[in-house]
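Record pair follows.
FIRST:
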Amino acid sequence: SAMARHAGPRLPLIVKNLIPTLSSVFDSQRITTTAFFAELLSSNVVNDLILLETVMDNMTGRQKDACMLVRMLALRGLGNMASGSPEKVRKHGAKLLASMVNGMDDKDDPHNLVALEAMSSLSKLLDHVEERDIQSMLLHIAIRIRPFFDSEQPDLRQSSIVLFGNLTKFSECNCEVFFEQILNGLVTLLLHLQDPKPEVVKACKFALRMCGPNMGCEGLCDMFLNHLREDRSLHYGEFMNNVCKHLMQSYPEMLNRLILTNLFYFKSSWVDIRAAAPMFIGFLVLHVDEDHCQQVDLDQLISGE
């Protein structure tokens, strides 16, 4: 970053001399060069020196690198274009999005570090891509990130939930399809408002505020916007009581589906979430009308399985 600020005229020659090391047999050389290029992409100097395409192409070329750290840093570099060259993100949107999706599908990523970088970088890029470029990938991304909502790693929970919230901006053209994804994630997002990590709670508040306008229930949308502000503390029990009232007024046919999802969290490793799930079910049953009560499998509910 210091060289981007102070050594601009020297950078084209430095970049030219570093490119061959991206094919080095030594991991350390590939890692160092990729990290350097990734940082360059966060500065507009690559545009001024007509280096953007060269550096970007070399970063996308590192996606199949044998070293996981190289693959992760390459994605970070592509995500850095959102701050360094936002106007170029629009031009190269389809290529950048494909790189992020490939990163989320990385098969040799036991600790999901590449996936984490892909999700974080994609959230940064979304403000600058063309809607048509994201539409074809929207459903795949939403389905792919859903398992991370319950990851044992808090940074994976946070990044996936924030990304899901950002994806809702593009849901208008696929409103019915994406509405299904919102319903699939709704219980999880509401329960993780009791997450032990404040950054995950903050992410859930953001995602639910973003989901509200897509749910076709004005009361629920208003509740999410008014009660889930970052600067406002939440009385969880009272909030969930009112949320369940709106859910059962607008989607009574969803009762069994919502109950089944909550039952999964009866065995959660997080005690506050484990406690929130039966409370959630209790409020659902409290507010459902008599006509829809037959949806409830009492034996299953009593056994908690």
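SECOND:
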Amino acid sequence: TWKWVVGPMFLYLCERLVRFWRSQQKVVITKVVIHPFKTIELQMMKKGFKMEVGQYIFVKCPAVSKLEWHPFTLTSAPEEDYFSIHVRIVGDWTEGLFNACGCDKQEFQDAWKLPKIAVDGPFGTASEDVFRYETVMLVGAGIGVTPFASVLKSVWYKYCHDATNLKLKKIYFYWLCRDTHAFEWFADLLQSLEAQMQERNNAEFLSYNIYLTGWDESQATHFVMHHEEEKDVITGLKQKTLYGRPNWENEFKTIAGQHPGSRIGVFLCGPEGLADTLNKQSISNSEADPRGVHFIFNKENF
């Protein structure tokens, strides 16, 4: 038995040593941004840090807990000179991080007062393959929208510089959330991307649909009254917010009809139930003919 145990244990110890060494490297918090609904953005720098779109890191803040490591998806783009995460304050550890960064104080905080942060990573995810397809469907549910912040930022930077070598030609983006106000930082990103594409006369590059799955009667009345306005009353985007859940069968059939003979990447960051639905639709709407349309499903679950 020991012959079978020694090998894996040796590899495990090596992996722990590498993680310990990487976690000891100095990380500098360059900026802390407070977003609405108790969401903070940490912008950080670390020597030799290289990332791809959609990857994630493990974060430890000794001022909050000396042992706890928590995973966070990177919301920055590889083209930026820093890496960032968005943290929603929903528990004891995130509350401690919020206070340690001085976000509970009104006055401006000096950089040297910010807590020390240990970072391990980045680690790969399915979202890294986005730029290998000409057409992609991005589906984010709630906080699962964060990996696509990195993707869309990277697309924005590529279009700012030179998009001629970009294989990706069309993005269908779906965002399902109960309360868009909790992710206003992401709506701001969509507004920037929307304006950028219009300036470059390529507004058709990004098609996005935002589905609000939770609202009350007073909100519904308010939405109806302002439905005719040029911009959406919730997000400020030209694309109006939809209510309920998408009809995935219709969406897949429509996209398949618009891109015959294509390999379409379907990327999800969301719950397991939604993953099962999208996987079944990807299979049922893919043609048996190798020259036909094929949906390639990729998922991240939380």
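COMMENT: The chain has two domains: 25-123, 128-299.
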